[in-house]
Design a protein that fits this description.
alpha/beta, 2 domains, Rossmann fold
Length: 239
């Protein structure tokens, strides 16, 4: 189920947005729940409590009791996953929206087409975050989220998968076979013995990839130009 929140101090706008979103999500045949707030402070109080978290938040920027950008900054202190979609009457805060990793920025007047585009992008992001793969070894079976994988390394027929948690999962396989099972554009095969999650690359320099955990991953000299191009295209698409 997709859990959605809408926050706007204009009751008329709040109702219109809620109706449009309900129609769009129903057409996608996905179960959902919508919770509405007409004050930013009520939204904050609700989200800070252990009641529930939201997958997608539609947040007005200009409200009487608060500023949506400030609310989003506070939300990001305890919730990094929520897809925040700003709704506003001005482009003034478009740059500020990047600071809080907003998914989309909608200018009023709101219509179904604008909301449909925003929801599609948010849903793609949620699908990406929830994608997982099953890894089986002698110790057992592991459902591993793609977003938890930093990189993979192959030695002979043994594959080591290095996770954000510092855990390493080891199993017997060809690295190419594992790479093909992933079938996800965020993963790049940089070398015959390495695959990397491009979300966690800190920089590419000369013939090396530097990961956020300071690991140094080699790049195949023969494919260095192609690999760099794939990474830059990925950056342009997702940043």
């Amino acid at each position: 189920m997709i859990n959605i929140a809408i926050c706007d101090d204009d009751i008329g706008e709040l109702n219109i947005i809620s109706i449009f979103i309900s129609k769009i999500i129903e057409n996608l045949n996905i179960s959902f729940k919508i919770t509405v707030f007409n004050q930013g402070l009520d939204l904050m109080e609700h989200m800070r409590s252990p009641k529930e978290s939201f997958d997608i938040l539609f947040l007005d920027i200009y409200m009487k009791d608060s500023n949506g950008i400030d609310i989003a900054r506070k939300i990001r202190e305890f919730d990094e996953e929520c897809k925040i979609i700003f709704i506003t009457s001005s482009q003034e805060h478009a740059i500020d929206s990047y600071e809080v990793r907003a998914t989309y920025y909608i200018l009023k007047p709101v219509n179904e087409e604008k909301l449909s585009t925003a929801i599609k992008i948010a849903m793609e992001g949620l699908d990406k975050e929830n994608k997982q793969i099953l890894i089986i070894n002698k110790k057992g079976s592991y459902k591993v989220l793609y977003k938890d994988i930093l990189y993979g390394e192959s030695k002979a027929r043994i594959v080591n998968i290095y996770l954000k948690s510092h855990e390493v999962i080891t199993f017997y396989s060809k690295l190419e076979d594992f790479f093909q099972k992933l079938q996800d554009e965020r993963f790049l095969k940089s070398h015959k013995s390495f695959i990397v999650n491009m979300d966690y690359i800190s920089k590419i320099e000369n013939n090396s990839i530097f990961m956020i955990n300071n690991s140094n991953i080699p790049i195949s000299i023969a494919n260095i130009t192609e690999i760099k191009e794939k990474y830059f295209k990925y950056l342009l698409k997702y940043t």
